[in-house]
Amino acid sequence: MHSRTTALELSIKKAREKKDILLMTHIVLGYPNFDDSLRIVEDMVNAGVDLMELQIPFSEPMADGPVILRANAEALKRGATVEQSFEAAERLTREFDIPFLFMTYYNILFCQGVTEFVNRCKSIGIQGCIVPDLPPAEGQEYLDAMHAAELSPVHIFTPYTPESRMRHLSDNSSGMIYCVARKGVTGKDTAFSNEITAYLETCRNSTELPLAVGFGVKSKEDINYLRGKVDIAVVGSETIRIMEQEGVGAVKGFIETLVA
Amino acid sequence: MKNSGYFSQFGGAYIPEILVPTFDELESAYLAAREDESFWQEYLDIMSTYSCRATPISRLDNLTEQLGGAAIYVKREDLNHTGAHKANNVMGQGLLTKRMGKKRVIAETGAGQHGVATATMAAKFGFDCTIYMGAHDVARQRPNVFWMEQMGATVVAVTEGSQTLKDAINEAFRDWVTNMEDTHYVLGTACGPHPFPEMVSWFQSVIGTESRAQMLERTGKLPARVYACVGGGSNAMGIFSGFFDDKDVELVGVEAGGRGKGVGQHAARLAYDDATIGVAQGYKTYFLQDNDGQMKDTHSVSAGLDYVGVSPILSALHESKQVRFEAASDADVVAAMQKTVRNEGLIPALESSHAFAQAYAEAPTMSPDDNILINMSGRADKDIFTVADAVDDPKWRQFIIDKAEQYQNAGATK
Questions:
Q1: Interface test with chain B among A55, A69, A83, A133, by most B beta carbons within 10 Å
Q2: Which domains occur in chain B, in start order?
Q3: pLDDT tens figures, A192-230
Q4: If you count Cβ atoms within 10 Å of the first and of the last residue's Cβ in chain B, which end, N or C, has fewer?
Q5: Quick check: is B149 catalytic?
Q6: Residues of chain A neighbouring B295 (CB-CB closer than 8 A)
Q7: What structural domains does chain A harbor?
Q8: Please, what's the b/e burial string for A79-111 (b: 16 or more CB within 10 A of its CB; e: otherwise)?
Q9: Which of B75, B86, B102, B339 is catalytic?
Q10: Please, which residues have CB within 8 angstroms of residue B87's CB and are 6 or more apart in sequence?
C-alpha cells in the first residue's frame, strides 16, 4: 500500500469487502433548500448509498452541465451561504455513518482561506474534497493542508489524461480517484460500453487508490457495466433530475432501483 | 502545464482536468508562434490587407482648443475591420487555430464586437463558428447579432446567471470541454487561464507599438498620459504595452463607474474598493464578489465593460502602481461621447467613451506642452439603440415606431 492511507480509503476498502461496487451520490447543498437537502441525504443513506458528495454552491460552476448549474444558481438565489453548507454538512456527518466529501470550486476555499476551509472540513467530519478547477500545480497550499489534516484531496482522471499525468494526479491524491467517463460537462449521457474499458484499465494501472466513475451514470445497467472494473459508481445529475421531475420523495425509490 | 503564467500573484490556470492537454497544446502553439518571426510577419500582412493596420492617430483640434491644457490625440482602433481592436486578437488566434489544425472556433461576446470579429475571421478562414452571448446582451446589441448570423455563425443566447459576459464565458468553456479536439476557444480579452492573458496582450501589442512610433513621429515626443477603457483589459494592455519602458508616460485605465459606487451599480474592479481577490473563470484576479466568493451583478451602460473580473496583468500593474485606475460614470460617458461626435465627427463606442470622459476631465489641468493619447478601441455604430435612448432622440423613436408598424402590417398580411 502507498504512503498516505486516509480514513476515506480505509472505509472504501472495508465497504468493498461486502459489496462488489459502491454507490456514491451527489447533491447540491441548499437545493431546493437546506431542509430538503437533509431529507434527500437521509433517504439516500436509507436506500443504501455508500458515500456522498456534497456540493457547496458556487456562482460560476464551470465544469457542471445544465442540471447542476441550475441547482447551484437556485440555491444561491435562495440565499445559500458557505456557512450554512458547513452547518448542514456537520449535521449529516453526525447523523449518518457513511463518508461525506465536499465538492466545490476553488474560489469557495480561497475566500474562506484555504487552510481554514480544510481545518473546518476536518472539524465537522468531512473526509475529502473534490475541487474540479484546482489542478495540483495551482493547489500546493490546499494539498499541504489536506495532507496535514489527513483528509483526502481527490483528483480527476479523464479519457484524455496521459498515463504519466495520471500518476502525477494519483501522487497528489488520497482516498480515491474520480474518473470522468467522457469529455463534456456533468449530466449528459455516456455510452457505458467496451469503448471505455481500455480507459478504465489505464486508470486502474495508474493508481493504487480506489476508483470512482462518474459523468452520465444513471441506471442499473450502467452500474452493472462498472461492476468488477472499478470500486465506486457515481450518480450525480440524475438524482437531481428525478427530484425535479417527480419530487423529493422519489429519490429514495430511484436509488433503491440502482442498488437492488 | 509547464508554466502557469503568473503576474505577481495574479493569473494562473485554474482549469478542469479535461482541458489540461488542450491548454498544453495551445501554449506550445503560442510559444512556437512567438519564436517564429514569419508568424508575426504573416499576422502584420493580414492586418494590413484585411483590416486597416497601421491605424492612424488623429488630433482632436477642436476639443483641444475648447478644453485647454494638453493636446488630445486619439489612436483610431475604430478603423479596424468590424470597427474595433477586437480584430487584432481574432486574426492572431485565427492564424494559431489554422496552425493547430482545428476546424471550429467558439467565442464569448459582451457588446458583440468580439463575436462579430470572430465570425468574420471564421468566415474568412472557413471555420465553423459558435458565439455565446448573454441573453441580456443579445437584447441590447441586436445589430451585432444580425451580422454574426449573416456571416454564418450560430449565436447562442445564454440565459444562465446574470446573462452577461461572464455567463457567456462559462458557456463557452462548457462547449470547449465537450469539443476541444476540433475546436479552439477564441477568448476575447486578456483574461482567463494562462496563456490567454499573455497571448491576447501579445496580439494587441500592435496598438502600442504603432502608437509610440506615431506619437514620436507626429509630435516629436512621447505622450504625457495614455488613456484606455478597461473591461477585460485587452485594448488597454495593447496600447499600454507600447509605453511600459517609458517612465514619464502615465498610463490610465478607465473602468465602468456605472451609476456610482456600491454593489451592483458599476463594473469597476480596480478603481473602487468593492472588488477582492478571487479565482473564477480559470484565473486569479480582482473580482466583484461577496465574502463567500459568489460573483455579484455588475452594471454599465456599455455591455463590453460589464464584467466581474479584469486582466490579471492589469491587477499586477495596479498593485505595482504602473497603471492608474479611474472610473467614469454612465452619464459622463454618454456626455463625452456626444461631445466627441459633435465637435470632432468621431463616433467612439460607449466602451471607448470611458477613456474619452477621463481624458476630457484631466486635459484642462495639464500643460499645453503636454500631449495625451486616448485609445479609441471601437466605434459606436453597434450602440445606436442605446445611445439614441440615452440622448432621448425623438426622431429616432419615431423611426423605430414607424419601422415596427411596417413589420406589423407586413406580418398581418402574411
A1: A133
A2: 6-48+86-196 (3.40.50.1100), 52-83+205-388 (3.40.50.1100)
A3: 777 789 999 999 999 999 999 998 898 999 999 999 999
A4: C
A5: no
A6: 59-60
A7: 7-259 (3.20.20.70)
A8: ebbbebbbebbbebbeebebbbbbbbbbbbbbb
A9: B86
A10: B47, B51, B80, B81, B117, B120
**Which residues in chain A show pLDDT less than 50?**
1
Q: What is the pLDDT of residue A211?
A: 98
Which residues of chain B fall short of a pLDDT of 70?
Answer: 1-3, 412-414
For the annotated catalytic residues of A, the residue numbers are: 53, 64
d(CA B349, CA B336): 11
Record the cell numbers describing residue B280, joined without a space: 473564477
> Cβ–Cβ of A185/B20 closer than 8 Å?
no
pTM summary value: 0.95
Q: Where are the beta strands (DSSP E) in A71-139?
A: 100-103, 128-130
Q: Which chain B residues are closer than 8 Å to A70 by Cβ?
A: 160
Contact across the interface for A156 and B295, Cβ inside 8 Å: no
**Which residues, other chains included, contact B107 with Cβ-Cβ below 8 Å and sequence gap of 6+?**
B90, B114, B115, B118, B129, B130, B131, B132, B172, B185, B186, B187, B188
Count other C-beta atoms under 10 Å from residue B158's C-beta: 25
User: Among residues B110, B159, B189, B282, which one has the least CA distance to residue A60?
Assistant: B282
User: So what's the pLDDT on residue B94?
Assistant: 98
